[in-house]
Design a protein that fits this description.
Blueprint: H1 3-40, H2 49-56, H3 73-92
């Protein structure tokens, strides 16, 4: 190994430690921001960090912020599909309901009924 290789190795180690230091400082800064938010959020009526992570997190069958299990989406999907299908069927083939008040039959004075009888 030549002296240029040794200098490059030392320089790489130095820059590597600097990079790790920057990454650790950024991680600690993010942790400090999250802790500050968690302390301030209840006083300002903001949602807690766990709820924000739950909303922004992946859509999986996991425990929610309240410790409740997320329901299976297959039943919800089937209910939506059936509701849409029923709405389309209702538009295409509307149900025939009897009117609440039947329309009055007009009087025919020509057949001999008096005008006041109707």
């Amino acid at each position: 190994m030549s002296w240029i290789g040794i200098i490059l190795l030392v320089l790489a180690l130095y820059l590597g430690f600097k990079l790790v230091g920057v990454v650790l400082k950024l991680a600690l800064f993010v942790v400090a921001i999250v802790i500050a938010y968690a302390l301030v959020a209840p006083h300002l009526d903001w949602p807690p960090p766990t709820e924000i992570l739950w909303v922004l997190g992946p859509d999986t069958d996991a425990l929610g912020p309240d410790g409740l299990r997320v329901p299976d989406t297959a039943h919800m999907r089937q209910r939506v599909v059936e509701g849409v299908a029923d709405a389309i069927a209702e538009r295409v083939v509307p149900t025939v309901d009897a009117p609440a008040d039947p329309l009055p039959v007009p009087c025919d004075e020509a057949q001999g009924e008096p005008a006041g009888a109707c």
